[in-house]
Amino acid sequence: MADEITRFQLLELPPRAINRIIGYMSINDALIMSFISHRCLKIVSGAIRYPEHLKMDIRITSDDFSISLYQEELQAIPGTSFRETKNIIKFECRKFEGNWFAGKKFSDLNGNLIFGVKLPAGEYVGFYQYFPPRSHEVDVYTSHLIGHLLALFPRLTVYQLTADFDAFRENFLVERAFATLRTVEHVELLGRDRRLKVPIILTLIEVTRTFNSTDVQHGRRTVHPAQLRCTESIDIGCAAWMSRASLLSLNCPLIFLQRTKFCRVDIFGFLEKWKTYDDGSMDRIKIVEIQVPPAVLGMDILRRLGGQRWNPARRPQRFEFEDWDWDCKDGTDLYRADGRIGTVLQCPPYIVRFVVWPA
User: Fold this and answer.
1) Residue 132 has what pLDDT?
2) Residue ranges of the F-box domain (predicted)?
3) What pTM value is reported for the model?
């Protein structure tokens, strides 16, 4: 005789029993339960078991939107520097006839609109639209889904954010889409929409490792919180929005800023801070390239900083770091009290290059 199936109301059990049951659920099952209501989200987030190093990637372009949760395996791929990753779950929605959707939408018993999110096994998870926008915009969908996942997995690391500004019509849509994000390791911004500005992102999100903004158009110079706390690289295709304060806040090994509006005082302040400050606030810097307006930097500024011509006894002629190899024979050297040497090179067209030699 087959065993009888016992049915019970999970949420009517004692809290300890609920936590025990949820703790043995798969991530997919727990995720499905978390979408039922705010109460379920709170209960599941306190009991769900998930990998220690769970990461999230977010990608938003004019054509697609996806969020992936995955775990990095501890074993590296033999013969390479890459690690194998295990995809745990992926949310996707596609643009169709001008509206964003996730393949399916329906309503719950109370008539509340739910969006169906397709899981790897083929089933759909119901995602509530807490305040329905006029046309199911991606910004609202993005904000709520990201917020839900961050609440469900509090130890989650947001590893990569790729966003195309052309997917958003107005500035407030950018703010609303990423309102639930606080920290991201790697950010890449795309698009050419002149109405949208990078500082909007940086007032919301702290970027901790790399920041890349290819050819986004920006407006006037803006003072914003020092959210570019990158420890690896910063590459901005149009940095006209950056203020002197934002320039002086950078402490990153690789910094590339194109089409800036920095004046002589700004560049002088940056070099002076590197030379005189001993608080570690610029100790990560190895290479800086800044495209400046004509006649921004001259020998008079470098002389005021104590700049000297190359002395072969104090440093090599060529600066070599990773893929870079530059002849610094004609550079002007700045000497710090701790013995570090920085070299300023003026390269056409209107490029100020600053390199810091190994100690």
Assistant:
1) 38
2) 7-53
3) 0.80
